[in-house]
Amino acid sequence: MNSTILTTIAATGFTVAFFHAAIPTHWLPFVLVSRARGWSRAKTLGVTLLAGLGHVAVTSLLGLGIAWFGFQLDEKIGAAFPWVIGGGLTAIGLYYFWRQWRGGGICHHAVPGGHHHADEHCGEEKEHSHWHAELKESPLVSERKSDWTVIGGLFLMLTLSPCEGFLPVYLSGVQFGWHGFLVLSVILALGALLGMLIFTWLTLVGLEKFEVKNFERYEAALLGGLFCALGVLIVLLEH
Is there a contact between 232 and 224 (Cβ–Cβ < 8 Å)? Predict the structure, then answer.
């Protein structure tokens, strides 16, 4: 039964990480900067991978703190822990549904040097024109900047924006100890990096009409459904 629970949590985690990586902020800036600076596809994918590793590392570090807190809580409440975790995940899921209902969703607009800020209408944009506008004002496309400076900017853009949606997944795996933490960290890396590389490559080869903007628009609702389902499953499988 424990393996079933861990498998369910891992599958949920992969889904969260992969679809989070489908959000345009995780691949479109690399494509636009690549075109502006004349990078090859291989170099663009390499920079995307590097930035993704920073993104995953910071998220895992935050997950480490959550796991440690969960271990302490598990020791204190014992058999009631699955109910607490299940209820907590359901509450988090309802919170994401509330965010979606409010119209805000989850926005991740942060191009270094740009001036675009997230607002309640960010999920309603029809095209990616705002990225082009930001990049015109960004030092990332300046010919006076070296490639390493530009790469550093892209790296910081993702590293300083961890995957908040994956953090509750770490909490759900606390009962499996450090083994569970390591498994979920690997799942996070696989889902996030695979998603970033796939969507970057699809755009580089010309499949720009591949519709992914709806993932950004409805990310909060997707996370809400996943966390509510996971919370209920943890309680049911444990009992």
Answer: no
